[in-house]
Amino acid sequence: MAAENPVAGTAEEVEGNWCLIESDPGVFTELIRGFGCTGAQVEEIWTLDADAFHHLEPIHGLIFLFKWVDDKPAGRVVTDRSDIFFARQVISNACATQALLCLLLNLRHSDIDLGQTLNGFKRFCQDLDPETRGHCLGNEEKIRKVHNSFARPVLFEFDTRPGSPDDYCYHFVGYMPIKGKLFELDGMHEGPIELAEIGQHQNWLDVVRPIIEARMERYSVGEIHFNLMALVSDRQRCYERQIQLLVHQPSPLSHAERQSEIATLRTFVKFEQEKKRRYRQENIRRRHNYLPFILELLKQLGETGQLMPIYEKAKQRAYQCQAYKSDKN
């Protein structure tokens, strides 16, 4: 990222600034909760095999992180679709929240309630052009505060030029089906990118997977810095709903089969509960300011004469690792 004008403090302390967001399902799930949206969560996808998608369905959209390059869009950029919520990215570091919001604000599903903040923002921006929507997002205090709650404490924060594509090393975009067509929602373009038609009996995931795979293959050999996440319905709610159906509604299953299925679903519910607990713990650690401890530790090591020996030992290990890699090559 291009850097200029070092500013002391965190991103939250610089008015109008947005922090970088880690590509992690726990972070994105908490963003959703923080926005006031319920019934949705984010899951990481480790492979493009169809089975990796199947067990997460319904999948409402995908969020793809990749190393940004100045590339032509893979489809037709449309600027005449007022029925699609799309905002231009005019704020540095906002692409994570921007990609997530573009999926949520185009979503119509009974499982998911956008909540007061997102519904109000959508109504306010409904008749505005994408550029103005991008500026409105920058001025939406609640959304910005939730985003910047993941700002990591640093000694120096570097300000960047808002909206310049060259400022972004990595970039988030969204993919989702809208009214029978597959769209890529990338705030760096003027509008949604229409990628393909989706057949009446076709699963949109079967259409998008080869498109993402082809995009990854365009990069140089050895480039592995990709991340793919799915916006899905709250898994715990889905499993609990299935349990209620098995308990209260007639089923072709025998009593033993029904009880076995209920036991399996309860195991899944416990897994989701444990996952949410783990996400909360990880996010607390992400937000914790470890810098005073680190600085005090370095100070104490220096005062007791232990710092330089540790440094020299670490440097020697680095040289050995580099020599080993050179020999392997």
From TrEMBL:
<dbReference type="InterPro" id="IPR041507">
    <property type="entry name" value="UCH_C"/>
</dbReference>
<keyword id="KW-0788">Thiol protease</keyword>
<feature type="site" description="Transition state stabilizer">
    <location>
        <position position="89"/>
    </location>
</feature>
<dbReference type="Pfam" id="PF01088">
    <property type="entry name" value="Peptidase_C12"/>
</dbReference>
<dbReference type="InterPro" id="IPR017390">
    <property type="entry name" value="Ubiquitinyl_hydrolase_UCH37"/>
</dbReference>
<dbReference type="Pfam" id="PF18031">
    <property type="entry name" value="UCH_C"/>
</dbReference>
<feature type="domain" description="UCH catalytic">
    <location>
        <begin position="17"/>
        <end position="233"/>
    </location>
</feature>
<dbReference type="GO" id="GO:0005634">
    <property type="term" value="C:nucleus"/>
</dbReference>
<keyword id="KW-0833">Ubl conjugation pathway</keyword>
<dbReference type="InterPro" id="IPR036959">
    <property type="entry name" value="Peptidase_C12_UCH_sf"/>
</dbReference>
<dbReference type="GO" id="GO:0005737">
    <property type="term" value="C:cytoplasm"/>
</dbReference>
<feature type="active site" description="Proton donor">
    <location>
        <position position="171"/>
    </location>
</feature>
<feature type="site" description="Important for enzyme activity">
    <location>
        <position position="186"/>
    </location>
</feature>
<feature type="active site" description="Nucleophile">
    <location>
        <position position="95"/>
    </location>
</feature>
<dbReference type="InterPro" id="IPR038765">
    <property type="entry name" value="Papain-like_cys_pep_sf"/>
</dbReference>
<dbReference type="GO" id="GO:0004843">
    <property type="term" value="F:cysteine-type deubiquitinase activity"/>
</dbReference>
<keyword id="KW-0645">Protease</keyword>
<keyword id="KW-0378">Hydrolase</keyword>
<comment type="similarity">
    <text>Belongs to the peptidase C12 family.</text>
</comment>
<comment type="subunit">
    <text>Catalytic component of the polycomb repressive deubiquitinase (PR-DUB) complex, at least composed of caly/calypso, Asx and sba (MBD5/6 homolog). The PR-DUB complex associates with nucleosomes to mediate deubiquitination of histone H2AK118ub1 substrates; the association requires the positively charged C-terminal tail of caly, probably due to direct binding of DNA. Interacts (via ULD domain) with Asx (via DEUBAD domain); the interaction produces a stable heterodimer with a composite binding site for ubiquitin.</text>
</comment>
<dbReference type="InterPro" id="IPR001578">
    <property type="entry name" value="Peptidase_C12_UCH"/>
</dbReference>
<dbReference type="GO" id="GO:0016579">
    <property type="term" value="P:protein deubiquitination"/>
</dbReference>
<comment type="function">
    <text>Catalytic component of the polycomb repressive deubiquitinase (PR-DUB) complex, a complex that specifically mediates deubiquitination of histone H2A monoubiquitinated at 'Lys-119' (H2AK118ub1). Mediates bisymmetric organization of the PR-DUB complex and is involved in association with nucleosomes to mediate deubiquitination. Does not deubiquitinate monoubiquitinated histone H2B. Required to maintain the transcriptionally repressive state of homeotic genes throughout development. The PR-DUB complex has weak or no activity toward 'Lys-48'- and 'Lys-63'-linked polyubiquitin chains.</text>
</comment>
<dbReference type="GO" id="GO:0006511">
    <property type="term" value="P:ubiquitin-dependent protein catabolic process"/>
</dbReference>
<protein>
    <recommendedName>
        <fullName>Ubiquitin carboxyl-terminal hydrolase</fullName>
        <ecNumber>3.4.19.12</ecNumber>
    </recommendedName>
</protein>
<keyword id="KW-0539">Nucleus</keyword>
